[in-house]
Design a protein that fits this description.
- The chain is α/β, with parallel strands linked by helices and 284 residues long.
- It has eleven helices and 13 strands.
- The strands form five sheets. It has a five-stranded parallel β-sheet, sandwiched between helices. Strands 1-2 form a two-stranded parallel ribbon. A two-stranded parallel ribbon has the order 3-5.
- The longest helix has 24 residues.
Length: 284
């Protein structure tokens, strides 16, 4: 029997990490155990562990990558950050060789795919599995704007008066099960109550768009970390951009949910096919 493993995030206080895991695990028959994302290079033993790599790796890249020989990865939704010297580590000869062992490597953003390609790794642009969450069936009727880690954005009165402020960050120490539970509750809350989401968090925007919730997104338009939003038709608004009343209305009306559903369908079909080939190609 295949031994699928998930991730846990000992050094993370960001519910976006857990949301990415929730998105992945919907496609898997069972998660047998969870491995710490930031120490995947240090694992020992003989049992083979199958891991889908939707996300970024990691706070401590030298302790994470290349993964232990016990981990068999399906690279899908991989993001490499320019923070904490990760690129220099991932572009080392031994890292490139490891990536090629499991190529093609699915990347969350075009920049990650391009840089790896330029260093000899076969890649494809997979986007992110958090864009595959199911669309909600009903629309909450009372106006409820949810401001998620965007408290620094100046809002007009008609939005501010109907707003709830939320965050994906938690500062208290929580168990793994509590953190996953909180992430699931947050997704459920968005699905049942939100009429519009205003956020700077990629992994608030993507799952909410997948669920059919309009999103107004603020961040750095030149940051490749969030660039896939533009590829699904969502404008990345600069924090200091000028905004009149018409901006807020047009930002909602311009969202093409048919385009988002098309992306969702393409990602789902592609991933399930690759997952099937991957699992059937492994002798367990």
């Amino acid at each position: 029997m295949n031994h699928f493993v998930g991730l846990k995030y000992r050094k993370s206080f960001n519910l976006g990490d857990y949301i990415q895991s929730i998105a992945v695990e919907r496609f898997l028959p069972k998660i047998n155990c969870r491995l710490d994302r930031d120490t995947l290079a240090t694992l020992s033993g003989k049992k083979k562990r199958l891991l889908v790599t939707n996300g970024w790796f990691s706070h401590t890249p030298e302790m994470c990558f290349p993964f232990s020989h016990t981990v068999i990865p399906l690279f899908y939704g991989l993001h490499i950050t320019n923070w904490n010297n990760s690129w220099s580590h991932f572009l080392k000869p031994e890292s490139i060789e490891y990536l090629n062992t499991y190529a093609p490597v699915g990347c969350r953003d075009r920049y990650t795919a391009k840089v790896l390609e330029n260093h000899g790794v076969q890649t494809f642009y997979s986007k992110c599995l958090s864009l595959t969450l199911p669309r909600r069936k009903t629309q909450y009727r009372k106006d409820c704007y949810m401001i998620v880690d965007a408290e620094h954005i100046s809002l007009p009165g008609f939005i501010k008066d109907k707003s709830i402020y939320l965050t994906h960050m938690y500062m208290d120490k929580r168990s793994e099960s509590d953190a996953f539970g909180l992430a699931r509750q947050l997704l459920q809350y968005y699905m049942e109550k939100a009429t519009v989401i205003i956020t700077s968090r990629l992994h608030c925007a993507l799952p909410c768009l997948a669920m059919g919730i309009p999103v107004i997104f603020f961040n750095n338009p030149s940051d490749y970390r969030v660039s896939l939003l533009e590829d699904i038709g969502i404008k990345i608004n600069a924090v200091n951009s000028q905004r009149d009343t018409d901006f807020w209305t047009s930002a909602i009306q311009q969202i093409n949910f048919d385009r988002i559903e098309k992306n969702k369908s393409e990602i789902t079909d592609d991933f399930t096919k690759r997952l099937d080939v991957w699992t059937h190609g492994i002798i367990t």
